C-alpha cells in the first residue's frame, strides 16, 4: 500500500512552515554530527588507536542509521509525534553519552561495550529522522520526491558542516567534552520539540501533546542537572582513576596531563594520557632506562624528541660533560607545567633552568624535516614519544621519521627509542625495531628488568631500541637487559617497516 501524507494544518503560511522544517533539519544535522565526532574523540582518548576506533564507531553508526530508517517507516502515520519522541530520546542519549562513557572508563576500566552501544542507539535515532522529516515536509507542500530529497539533504549537509566545524573549534576547546555534549543535547531537544509542539500541534491529540511536553521538560532537566554536576563528576572520575590526591588535570590539546601527590610527605606522580610516566620508586626507571644506555659514548650534543615533562632531560643533564641539550616538544602547556609546577619541577630536578637547555616548540617530524644540516649533528638522539600503538603518532615511528633522525645523527651517534611493551604487544615492539633497521641503523632491543631496589616491578613492560650506524653494545646495567638472542631470532619473520603510506602498528 502506498502511503500518501495528509496535508498538515499549520499556524503559518506553507512557505514559512517549509522553511522552519528545513531549519530544524539544519539544527538536527549539526547536533547529530557533533554526537558522532564526540564518540570518535572519546574512542580515541579512552581506548587509543584512532583509526580502528573511528572505523568501529562510524561503521556501527552508519549501519544503525539504516536500521533506524527502516524502523521509521512504521511511524509515518504519526510522523509529527514520532519525530518529537525521536528527538527527545536522541537529545538525552547524545547529551549524556560523554558523561556515561567517562563513567564506564573511570569506574569499570572499560568503555568499548558502552561505546558500541551508544553508537548503535544514536545511529538508529539519527537514521529515523530523515524519513519522518521527509513525511512532514511533504505534508506542508506536495512536490516531486527528487526535489524534496534535494532540499532535505541540502539542509542536512550544511548543518553537518556547521556541526563538524563547531565541534573542534568551539565546543571542545571552550566547553570541553562533557559540557559540549550536554549543550548539544539541549539544543537538539529545543529544536525538535519546538517544531512539533508549535508548527505541527494540529496533528497532536491533547494526550500526545502533554506527553511530548513532559518528555522534553524531563530531558532538559536531566541535561541541566548533568551540566550542574559536571565539575563534581570530573573530580570524582579523576579520583577513581588516579586516587584522591589529584592536583592538576588538564587537557592540553595534545594530551591529558594529570599530576598527583607532591604535598607534605607525598610523592608526586605524572600521568600522560592515563599512563604513569614518573613518580616514586619504579616509576622513574622509565627515563633512566631510555636515556642512560645511549649516553654510554659521545654525548656532547643531545637531542630529546618529546619528553616535555623534563624527565628524560633530567637524565641527560646528569652528565656534566653535556654541552647542549635540545628539547623538541609541541605541547606548550606541558612545557609550562614542567617549568612552574612544584611537584613536576621536583621530579625533573629543575631541568629547564639549566643554561645548556634549548627548547623548540614544534612537532618532532616537522622540526627534523625543516632542520638544516648546517646546524650540526647530534651525538645522542632520545625519542621520548607516546606509545607507537597510538595511531595518531604513527608517523613518529615511521621509516620516514627515522630517516630524518639518522640524517641528524653524528656518524658515531646513538639513537634511543621507546618502543612499547615487548611482552604485551610484541608485534608493535618488533615493528619499531624493523623500522629503525630499515634506515641503515643497527639495533639492540632491550627492556627494563623485572623488579627494582624499590620493589613493585611497575616498569616490566617497557621496551626500548638502541641504535647506531656501527655495531652497538649494551653494557649490563642495573635497570636494563638486552632482549636475548633466542628471542631476537624468534622475531616475526618478514616483518616490514612502518611507513607513512603503510602504517603497520596495531595490525
Low-confidence stretches: 450-460
Beta-strand percentage?
Answer: 5-15%
CATH class (first level) name of the largest domain: Mainly Alpha
The main β sheet shows up as: 8 strands, mixed
Q: Which topology of the largest domain does CATH recognise?
A: Growth Hormone, Chain: A
CATH-level-2 architecture of the largest domain: Up-down Bundle
User: Cα-atom Rg, whole angstroms?
Assistant: 28 Å
The overall strand count is: 12
Distance between the termini: 50 Å
- The helix/strand order is HHHHHHHEEEEHEHEHHEHEHEHEEEH
Arithmetic mean pLDDT: 85
Give the helix/strand class: alpha/beta
**Strand arrangement in the largest pleated sheet:** 7-6-5-8-9-11-10-12
Oligomer status: single chain
Subcellular location: Cell membrane
Membrane topology: Multi-pass membrane protein
GO cellular component, one term: plasma membrane
GO molecular function, one term: thermospermine synthase activity
Structure description:
The protein has 507 residues and is α/β, with parallel strands linked by helices. It has two domains: 222 residues, Growth Hormone, Chain: A, CATH 1.20.1250; 209 residues, 3-Layer(aba) Sandwich (Rossmann fold). It has 15 helices and twelve strands. The strands form two sheets. An eight-stranded mixed beta sheet has the order 7-6-5-8-9-11-10-12. The protein has a four-stranded antiparallel beta sheet with strand order 1-2-3-4, with helices on both faces. Helix 8 crosses helix 9. It starts with 13 loop residues before the first helix and ends in an 18-residue tail after the last helix.
